[in-house]
Design a protein that fits this description.
This is HTH-type transcriptional regulatory protein GabR. The protein is α/β, with parallel strands linked by helices. About 40% of the residues lie in helices and about 15% in strands. The protein has 13 helices and 16 strands.
Length: about 450
């Protein structure tokens, strides 16, 4: 009756089924405005349902304004409800399924098999039991204060950074921090200066807002500060401890030059320290922040140290930016999940982070050696490594070769996932002879077989 078909075994109640069916027909114009609906007794009899069920459905229609009702008169459809809807586009035919990835050299992926999941589970469980009722309320845009204190201690132990916990602000990862900083630091008519190549994330954040960009060329020592025009700059984004993606360490002279420009022209340096704890030929490189913190915003993350799904990062902010940060964060997402913050606080406090990083540095260092030996045994002297001995990926220069998008596509068809350095260059006209190989998540056998597969693939195309 009235196009209503009741499904008695459905999870949706019969009353809601009647409501939804009538609502859909009203919006489609199948039941016209002003048209009278059957009485509840009549509709119940026609559907084989109880009158109470139909009354409940009519109450829903009345509450949401789909019908009007007056005592002693039939319920009628309210005016102005007919919606003209467009037909949904026919979905495109599915592309042919790609071959499975057999050798995955994606970048930025830690070895998650080594993460102490049982301990982490215990810490999260303990946090759920031990947090007070007050701590489960909105905590504000700064973050969990005990975590800020532990991060300040961690930075001192791991990077010799003297940081006050009051200047540490928790974020939903480094990307969220960059979203906030770009809007806070923007000045009309001033550009953001970025390394070229650099991670597309920061480039996209700025470009999507229509803010102007200026490029810093990168060589084997990182960003070339001499190419920076300090005038009309609002901020400079750099990865000085391990330039992404080429891997160079910014020398002290270039750091000092950048700090002088920031002071002279009153702009800020965004220092993204995404993986400097994984350095294999000595201790982590000191950040620019340690030289002069007055114009430096230090951005850190735990995504590569622990696991990517842990969306917790942090910034160390100069005092003069903290009010703007609190305002912007308060109206973006307010805060991070408290249980993960509390668990991470204990992970740091118990020095489990120190032990985990020390262990992973050894594991990644061994994998790096396997990768370099495999490259030497297959490609020989035709391949040169760029950058410092740190991080979870290698930038490799293949002398006399050029790689483009078709190469990546063909590699993918052959079961090899690989990245080009050119995809991180804004103009795609530099570093065409370089590939990026992530290795942190791979086993020794996967690395060896993957390099052999890559060698054979390139040899076939030569």
């Amino acid at each position: 009756m009235w196009g209503i078909e009741l499904r008695y075994k459905a999870e949706v109640s019969l009353a809601r089924q009647i409501f939804l069916s009538l609502k859909q027909r009203i919006l489609a114009g199948e039941i016209s405005q002003g048209e009278a609906l059957p009485s509840t007794r009549e509709l119940a009899k026609g559907l084989g349902a109880s009158r109470n069920t139909v009354c409940e459905a009519y109450d829903m229609l009345l509450t949401e304004g789909f019908i009007v009702s007056h005592q002693g008169a039939p319920s009628r459809v309210a005016a102005g409800l007919h919606l003209t809807t467009k037909k949904a586009p026919v979905p495109a035919a599915r592309k042919q399924e790609q071959a499975p990835i057999l050798w995955d050299f994606k970048t930025g992926q830690p070895d998650l098999s080594q993460f102490p999941r049982q301990l982490w589970s215990q810490l999260v469980h303990a946090a759920a039991n031990n947090l007070t009722t007050q701590q489960l309320e909105y905590s504000g845009p700064k973050g969990y204060e005990p975590l800020c204190e532990e991060i300040a201690h961690w930075l001192l132990r791991s990077r010799s950074m003297e940081v006050k916990s009051e200047d540490v602000y928790i974020t939903s990862g480094a990307t969220a921090a960059l979203h906030l900083l770009v809007d806070i630091l923007n000045k009309a008519g001033h550009a953001f200066a970025l390394e070229s190549p650099s991670h597309p994330g920061i480039r996209t954040v700025i470009a999507d807002r229509g803010y102007p960009l200026q490029w810093l060329l990168v060589d084997e020592q990182g960003a070339d500060i001499s190419t920076l025009q300090g005038k009309d700059i609002c901020a400079v984004y750099v990865t000085p401890s391990h330039q992404f993606p080429l891997g160079g360490i910014l020398p002290a002279g270039r750091r000092a030059a950048l700090l002088r420009l920031a002071s002279e022209h009153d702009f800020y340096i965004i220092e993204d320290d995404y993986d400097s704890e994984f350095r294999y030929t000595g201790p982590p490189v000191s950040p620019i922040y340690s030289m002069d913190s007055s114009h430096v915003i230090y951005v850190g993350t735990f995504s590569k140290t622990l696991f990517p799904a842990l969306r917790i990062g942090f910034v160390v902010l100069p005092k003069q930016l903290q009010k703007s940060w609190r305002h912007s964060r308060n109206y973006m997402d307010v805060q991070n999940p408290i249980l993960e913050q509390a668990a991470l606080t204990q992970f740091l406090h118990m020095r489990k982070m120190d032990k985990h990083v020390q262990r992973m540095r050894r594991i990644y260092g061994e994998k790096r050696k396997v990768l370099l030996n495999s490259l030497e045994n297959t490609f020989g002297a035709s391949v040169q490594q760029w950058g410092d001995a740190s991080g979870l990926h290698l930038a490799l220069c293949f002398q006399g070769m050029e790689f483009g998008k078709q190469f990546v596509h063909d590699c993918r068809d052959a079961g090899i996932r690989i990245s080009l350095v050119t995809q991180y260059c804004p103009m795609n006209d530099h570093h065409k002879d370089k590939l990026l190989l992530g290795y942190g998540h791979l086993s020794h056998i996967q690395i060896q077989k993957g390099i052999q597969a890559l060698y054979e693939f390139i040899a076939e195309r030569a």
